[in-house]
């Protein structure tokens, strides 16, 4: 016997997610509690057996589609279930469909934490009525490092220049410490704003990142690491962990003293901290979809690749449609957005090329 319900037991939820092959920080109980700070709502839907044990879970974000102003359900790196062919998935999806009627959601969007090409998942999702969507919300391509080896083999797996830069940072006067105070966080966010302007990416309001640290720090599942030079904070990272996985979530660097390589030492510090928590993997997160020079995130990819590791591509986005007419309008808007984004990217690349030639 299986029953789907809203789960309110934080420990039960997190223990299940952490132990699953589909473990991801964006399916943790704490992640759902961040949504009010972004104007969204969350639902913790789980399936329990007759002994009360969880056998499937899905953190759902209730999001309003831009322009359409219609809500839809989104499961970032969900659902969490070991076997997609289990009856628990059908029980879960039937319950979610009933919730969708209450919220007037026009679809359920899922992006499972499952490797691309997984035939068992693809077969079952098709049987359940899902359709693929080429437009992802959570970037599919990530860079992962296995941090189980000891320190010496970990370092030997890096590019020689990266090992040199880690040592160089210390020789050049860079020190790393945990950020603990409000002043530390404020300094990190100021630098994060500088980074977003320099590298042209959007960031959330300050309160969101403060809440990330507050929520996940309760059981030391979050760390803010700060790089200082002569007593001044010049860079920082936020690292989270759950189960066997850790994630380099956010990174900030000022425009000053970058030649002292604080970011290399910060990453090494984050890896060591994750190892101390029993993690097996350090996820650097997003890299370009196509690994070719000139692609967006190419420079970020080169930095991450230098630490060793491998690319990991997740299963493509799948949508379960509840209201076809609204969904059709939604997909058309996504087509327009993709065209506009690609055009802007081409213009940025062209401007960068012109600038390099001018120099």
Task: Pick out its properties.
seven-stranded mixed sheet, 11 helices, 359 residues, 41% helix, 14 strands, alpha+beta
Would you give an account of this structure?
The protein is α+β, with helices and mostly antiparallel strands. The chain has eleven helices and 14 strands. It has helices at residues 10-19, 29-33, 87-103, 119-127, 151-156, 160-171, 182-199, 206-216, 262-276, 298-305, 324-358; strands at residues 2-6, 41-49, 54-65, 70-77, 107-112, 131-133, 141-146, 174-178, 222-229, 232-242, 245-253, 281-286, 310-313, 317-321. The strands form two sheets. Strands 1-2-3-4-5-14-6 form a seven-stranded mixed beta sheet, sandwiched between helices. The chain has a seven-stranded mixed beta sheet with strand order 8-9-10-11-12-7-13, with helices on both faces.
Q: What is the secondary structure topology, with strand pairs?
A:
Blueprint (H helix, E strand, L loop, with lengths): L1 E5 L3 H10 L9 H5 L7 E9 L4 E12 L4 E8 L9 H17 L3 E6 L6 H9 L3 E3 L7 E6 L4 H6 L3 H12 L2 E5 L3 H18 L6 H11 L5 E8 L2 E11 L2 E9 L8 H15 L4 E6 L11 H8 L4 E4 L3 E5 L2 H35 L1
Parallel strand pairs: 4-5, 11-12
Antiparallel strand pairs: 1-2, 2-3, 3-4, 5-14, 6-14, 7-12, 7-13, 8-9, 9-10, 10-11
